[in-house]
Structure to design on (131 residues):
C-alpha cells in the first residue's frame, strides 16, 4: 500500500461519494443537500477554531467519510502549473463562509507557508504488483 495526499479529483470523489458534481454548486456538500451550519465547522458555526474529527456526524458522506466540509483546508497532491511551490487545497475551513466548504471550491497555497486553518487527509492506495 502507498500513503499520499489525494489529487483534487480523488478528494472530490470522496466528498461526493462518487456522485457527479451538481450543475448548481449550492448543494455540493458531502451530505448532498444545501448548507446547514450544524453539519460543518465554517464561519457560520461561530467557533473560529478547529474542532475534533467527528464533531459533525450529520456532515459525513453517504460512504461515512467525516469532515470533508469545513474545519481545515486539506492539501491535495496537485500543484499549480508552472508554480512548483503552489498547491491546491479543498474543503474550506472554520474561518470562511459555507461557499468555500463545498466540494467544488478550491484554494491555492504556498507549500512553504503554514496556516492554522490548513490540514491534510491521507489516501491509502493499493499498489499492484505484477509477477
Amino acid at each position: 500500500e502507498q500513503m499520499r495526499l489525494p489529487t483534487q479529483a480523488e478528494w472530490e470523489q470522496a466528498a461526493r461519494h462518487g456522485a457527479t458534481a451538481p450543475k448548481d454548486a449550492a448543494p455540493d456538500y458531502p451530505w448532498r443537500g444545501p448548507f446547514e451550519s450544524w453539519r460543518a465547522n465554517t464561519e457560520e458555526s461561530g467557533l473560529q477554531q478547529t474542532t475534533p474529527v467527528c464533531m459533525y456526524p450529520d456532515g459525513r458522506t453517504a460512504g461515512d467519510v467525516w469532515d470533508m466540509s469545513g474545519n481545515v483546508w486539506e492539501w491535495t497532491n496537485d500543484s499549480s502549473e508552472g508554480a512548483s511551490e503552489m498547491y491546491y487545497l479543498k474543503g474550506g475551513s472554520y474561518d470562511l463562509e459555507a461557499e468555500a466548504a463545498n466540494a467544488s471550491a478550491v484554494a491555492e497555497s504556498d507549500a512553504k507557508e503554514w496556516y492554522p486553518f490548513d490540514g491534510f487527509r491521507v489516501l491509502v492506495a493499493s499498489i499492484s504488483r505484477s509477477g
